[in-house]
Amino acid sequence: MKWAGGRHFLVLGVYVLVFIAMTESVSRAAQPIVADHTVVDKYKDIPQYWIDGVKKMWLNVPGESHSSGYRNGLDFLEDLDPRFQVNRTEANADPEPYTDQHLRVSGHRRDNGGYWSYGAGEANWYTNAAGIANIRAHIAYSNTHNLTIAAIGFGWCWDMSWHNDVGGTIDPVYQVRWAGSSEGGPDGDLRWGLDAGDQTLTGNSVSMDTYLSATQQYIDYAAANGFPTKVFFTTGPVDGYSGESAYQRQLKHQYIRNYVNSHEGILFDYADILQWGDDGTQETETWTDYGNAVRTFPKMHSNNMLDFGGGYTEDGDHIGQRGALRLGKAMWWMLARIAGWDGVSAGGDTVPPTVASTTPSPSSGGVPVTTTISASFSEQMDPATIHSNTFIVTGGGGSVSGTIGTSTVSGVTVATFTPSSPLVSSTTYTATITTGAKDLASNPLAQEYRWVFTTAAQPAPPTPDPPPPDPPPPGPTSSSGGGGGGCSISMRGETDRGSPIGMVLMMFSPLVVLAARKAMIKG
Question: Which of 42, 227, 273, 495 is 20 to 30 A away from residue 375, measured at CA?
Answer without folding.
Answer: 42
